[in-house]
Every structure is written in C-alpha cells, then in structure tokens.
Amino acid sequence: MSDNISGWFPYGRNNTSGWRFDAVSLIAVLGESLIARHIQPLSASKWCLLPRLIPAPQSFLLATRPPRLPSSPATVCGVHSKTVVDELNYFADIMHSASEMKAFQVAVFRVELANLRSRMTRRSRTFMTVRHSNTQLDDEFHYQKHHALIPPASMSPLNALTVVSCLITIGAFVWAFLVQDGGAALALATMSFASILIGIASYWTPLLAKRPTKSLVIEGDVVLRSRQGAFVIIECSEEVARELYTGPEECLYMVGSQWFNLLVGIGTILVMISVVLLGNCNWTMQVVIVGIYTLLNSFYWLVALLPKQWLWDMSRYHCEDITPERMKNAGVKGPNETPSFTRSLWFAIQVTKETEWVSISKAAPKTDAWDKWLRMAQENCDNPDWDAVGEKNKLMEESVNIANRTPTPTPPTPEEV
Which three-class secondary structure state does DSSP give residue 332? Predict the structure, then answer.
C-alpha cells in the first residue's frame, strides 16, 4: 500500500521521477508589479550598476524611459505669483505627504533652502554659515551642474538591498563552481551582465527647475489643495517654489535614446538566454536560485512598506511644521463637530491673507454668494473669531430665498405675439 502511495509523488533528485525545479525560470520573472514601483529610485543611484540578480528584470526593459517623475493629482497655486499647476510634484508630495492627508485637513509649513555651502563641505567636516547672497547663488548653479539637488539617500534601504543582492549573487556563482554546475554559473553571469547593461541604460539624476536670473522677485508662497479638500500652505522663497512645486521635475539620463535602445536590446537577449540556462541547472543550484529570488522578492516587498522619505536625501531643504494649534484636526473642537471645507478654506485665507488665489485656483464656486463671502473673508482675515461657516450659510440661504421669490416669467400668448 505504501509503495503505491509513494508512486503518486516524485521521489529523490533524479531527472526521471524526482522532484524538479524547472519553474525556476518562471520565478525569475515574477514580481513585476512589485519591482515597477522601485524602478526610478533604484536606477537613480550609482549602485544600480552593480552586477546582481534582479527579480522581474523585464520591468526595466521598456520601450521608452519616463521623461519626468510621477506626480499626484492636486492643485498648486502661487499666493503672490498666481501661478496654477494641476499636479503635485513627486518630491513635494514626499515632503508633505499631501496625497495621504485626510479630507479638509489643514497644514502650514515653512520650507527654506538649507545652507548649501555647509552641505558641500560636510565631508571635510567644515561647516560654514553664509547668507543667501549672489555668491551663494553662483555656488548653487555650479553645484547643480555636477550633482543632483535631491540625490538618493546614500544609506537608503534600496541601496542596501542592491549591495546585498550583489553579494548573494557572487556567493551563488562561487557555489555553482564548487558543485561544477556550468549551466548555473553561466546563467548567473549572463543575468548579472544584463543587470549592468540595464543599469547603464536606466541610470538618471533628478533635474529640478531653476530660475535663470538672480533678480529679486516676490515671495513664492504656495497653497496645495488635494482632491480630498485638504489644504497645505507653504511659506517659501521663489527658488524653493520653482524647484519643488511649480517647476517640472525632469529625468536627466546618463545615455541618449540610441544607446538606450541598443543596451535594452542586448539586455533583453541576455535575459532570455539566462532564463533558458536557469531551467537547465542541476537540482542543488535550482533550489539555491529559487531561494535567492524568493528572498529578494520578500525584501523588495518590505522596502515598499517603508516611507518614501527614506529613499531620498532631502537635506537641501529645511521643512518646519508651523501649523497653528487651532487649525489642526481641520479645526474640529469636539466629537459632535464635523470637518468643513468652508472652515478649512477660511484657515488657508487666514494664513495667506489673500483671497485672489481662491478664485484663480477655482477652490470655491463662482457664484454671487461665494464672491460676497470671499470679500468678507478678505476683510476679516485678521479676525480669527469671524464665523466663516455661519456667514457662508447665511449667504447661501439668502441666495436661495431670492431665487424662490423671483417670479417665473410666463410665456406670451399667441394673441400677445
């Protein structure tokens, strides 16, 4: 009876009836959706040029490269410049987590450029304090030509995972030689060389918008309004506003389009060859490689759960939360009170002392009642005790009553015509 049952399942390691791991070639290309979210942070670091095994390498083998960083849906309006942008830049969203804010939440931040010269001389442990003068502006322009203004964090989890995967790949390559598995050794070498080509083709640095002149301009304060009706007010200079909020975030790649197409083509062929070779490894190396890919996919999944702030070096900016206490929690003071868009909008007007940006960014409906409310809000912007919600409700009721009292004109009779 036991002999008959054992015949139902593979037994041993031989190629005829034993357990096999032919699916190792399939496991090597699994996890594409997981790796896709890490492509840009991975390829922005020079560590991406290390030879290593990459889960789902086909995620990098795209026909085109993204010209800029992904953005979030939001409305960005300059309080004084009146510039309106219908999206929130990638680094600004990382800094403020605006896309994750609750409905009608209000936050106020002061964002300033950190001392650039101190940052440039940090390696020599020399710290200097200089004012934001023309000399410092010259240093900033020179610095951007040779370095990314927002580089990947040197100790980011993705960089650590890249180094770990390289060491694991080297260990697996040595193991393949010890067990005399030429197919596994060649597969690991081919996949590692493909990762180098993919890294060269995908390597990029963030290119932020810079003002072309050094002339004095008005303040660059901006207001962010999320799709959930949350408001984020940022007090900043025009340089900061241009870099983080109103200017485009472009990707500056190391190689041009023609070299990219060539490297991706060669990398695709190498990945296909390595996948075939992985299916012809011996039993021991197939187990090892399956374990490596399973481990790497688990690590990338864990990194996806970490905050994005851990992946980028944002030390160029000093961000301070200066939200007044009365504006926190959307101004809700008790369990029976609910958040209100009108109250949150009023808080934003109190901070900016302006209402023109409300009309320009279409933050409020364009009606007579709302226009009157905005004029009243402008007059009372220094009065924190003004009942903004109550006044809006009165104006709405008045507009409805006026509309109900207006008689509907009767059409003329044929005799009157």
Answer: coil
What is the Cα 373 distance to its own chain's centre?
36
| Domain range list for the chain | 11-66+153-205+251-310, 332-403
Q: How many CB atoms lie within 10 A of CB 114?
A: 12
Identify the pLDDT of residue 270. Answer: 94
Distance of CA 331 to the CA centre of its chain: 29
3-state DSSP call for residue 201? helix
**257-278 and 182-202 helices, crossing angle to 10°:** 160
Q: How far is the C-alpha of 191 from the C-alpha of 201, rounded, in Å?
A: 15
Task: List, for residues 83-120, the tens digit of each pLDDT value.
Answer: 999 999 999 999 998 888 889 999 999 999 886 444 44
Q: How far is CA 19 from CA 183, 187, 280, in A?
A: 19, 21, 14
How high is the pLDDT of residue 329? 85
**DSSP H or E stretch at residue 169:** helix 157-178
What burial class does residue 195 get, using C-beta atoms within 10 Å of its C-beta: 0-12 exposed, 13-18 middle, 19+ buried? buried
Phi first, then psi, for residue 233 (nearest 5°) are -105, 125
d(CA 256, CA 335): 58
Strand partners, 204: 253
Matching residue, tokens 């219908």: 86
Which residues of the chain fall short of a pLDDT of 70?
A: 1-23, 25, 115-147, 211-218, 403-417
Q: According to the model, what pLDDT value does residue 332 have? A: 80
Give me 219's structure tokens.
Answer: 């303040």
Q: State the DSSP H helix or E strand holding residue 318, giving kind and residue range, or none if neither.
A: strand 317-321
Angstrom distance (rounded) from CA 188 to CA 194: 10
What the block records as the tokens of 276 is 């075939």
Phi, psi torsion values for 326, nearest 5 degrees:
-70, -15
pTM across the whole model: 0.80
For residue 390, give the 3-state DSSP assignment. helix
Distance, CA of 69 to CA of 330 (rounded, Å) = 30
* Whole-number Å distance between alpha carbons of 53 and 27: 12
Gap between the Cα atoms of 156 and 295, Å rounded: 19
Residues in the chain: 417
